[in-house]
Amino acid sequence: MQTLSFQFSAGQPAQGRALVGCVGSGDLEVMLEPGTSGTLAIEVVTSVNGSDARWQQLFQRMFSEQQMPALNISIHDFGATPGVVRLRLEQAMEALADD
């Protein structure tokens, strides 16, 4: 297992929390919590060693082009493909917006 950390600039802290997926089922899990103003912090626990560049590219595409709220994002990936990860992240963001 490998733990990766990433940071991007962000706006004000999010107002809610979201959890999608289920780590107990061996599925990709994404947790969103309010973060520190100005920072989008992401921690990934992955079973795929050496996947740093893949994660960086995915997050760069998702979070560098638009102003996101300040969040702490925790991801347990269980070897999920980038498409599945993006889907789960979008699902979590949607759940956060519904709160």
TrEMBL record:
Keyword terms: Cytoplasm, Phosphoprotein
A GO molecular function held by the record: acyl carrier activity
Keyword Nucleotidyltransferase recorded: no
Gene Ontology CC, one term: cytoplasm
Superkingdom: Bacteria
Subcellular location: Cytoplasm
Main location: cytoplasm
Residues where O-(phosphoribosyl dephospho-coenzyme A)serine is found: 25
Entry similarity comment: Belongs to the MdcC family.
Role summary: Subunit of malonate decarboxylase, it is an acyl carrier protein to which acetyl and malonyl thioester residues are bound via a 2'-(5''-phosphoribosyl)-3'-dephospho-CoA prosthetic group and turn over during the catalytic mechanism.
UniProt-recorded name of the protein: Malonate decarboxylase acyl carrier protein
Protein species of origin: Pseudomonas segetis
Upper lineage: Bacteria, Pseudomonadati, Pseudomonadota, Gammaproteobacteria, Pseudomonadales
